[in-house]
Design goal:
- The chain is built from 9 helices and 12 strands.
- It has 341 residues and is of the alpha/beta class.
- Strand 11 and strand 12 form a beta hairpin.
- Helix 3 crosses helix 4 and helix 4 crosses helix 5.
- The structure holds iron/sulfur cluster.
- Iron/sulfur cluster binds next to loops.
- Iron/sulfur cluster (SF4) binds next to loops.
Amino acid sequence: MSTLTLEPKVEPIENDSKDTLLEIKNLKKFFPVKKGLLQFGKEQTFVQAVNDVSFSILKGETYGLVGESGCGKSTTGRTLLKLTEPTAGEAIYNRNDIFKLSGQELRKVRQDIQMVFQDPYSSLNPRKRIGKTLEEPLIIHNIGDAKERTEIVMEVLSKVGLQLEHYYRYPHEFSGGQRQRIGLARALIVNPKILIMDEPVSALDVSIQSQILNLLKTLQSDLSLSYLFISHDMSVVRHISDRIGVMYLGRLVEEAPTDELFANPLHPYTQALLSAVPVPKSGAKRERIILKGELPSPLDPPAGCVFHTRCPFAMDICKTQIPQNKQIENGHRIACHLYNE
Ligand code: SF4
């Protein structure tokens, strides 16, 4: 496959580690509340969807981002490609801050970093054959002539486990699992380095889920891909991820290698999340921790630790001071006052 070669114009920035492919630093995304929804005379308020989130994606790894619905994980993924503009922070890729790029430079990054959504069907043109839909990114990125583009599409269809005859079919002729394979094919067609996947198997039956997860693993090792895998499902994330970051109300509260996180969850929120996940082999569950109270609104998140209104271990300091993200051991990071010393 041919690729575009564009010289970056923005001043290069050094990454902390040579294995780091994408580094997110202090990302914030606040959405202003529409004027019509504000009470008369009230100051502008914001939905604090993502607040001071930092993490890295390493070469060839899968980083799982988990949390309840509305915790900011999907917004984080979309912001990284500027599908929604960030409020603050940096996303360093190839020594450039993605958030400062525009035009051709941003298009080049969007070729290298592709998104896969939960339901690719809604973005497929029902009147277009799949082969033609898959060719569109190649045309946008000016890759190949008509004959080469057809060959590239055929090759990618085969990589994602579809048949060559599927090139000529329409979206409604595919099952849910096949549509997700099409979503993957569309992302892979421009030869990316990173896939950001937002709940990519959540809409699928369990048996189809495992087929797609296995396909993702094969593609990762064949094509040296890195994944940001966003999901609310701890079991799925455990199956696919090398490292996991746990989000609560817009903040990253814990991060660790997958086995370490499941063996030794430290943050009280992570402990509660994992208490509902069956233990592999025995199928037994940990002692279930039921969180009290409602998830607070991101419009008016609690002061101090955002989890303090539901945390069984909350102390006075938790109500006023935001806990800093600290490394405890072996890449295990946590933001909680219980681990201050
Ligand atoms: Fe609980 Fe305090 Fe830790 Fe927050 S900082 S999780 S409230 S103990």
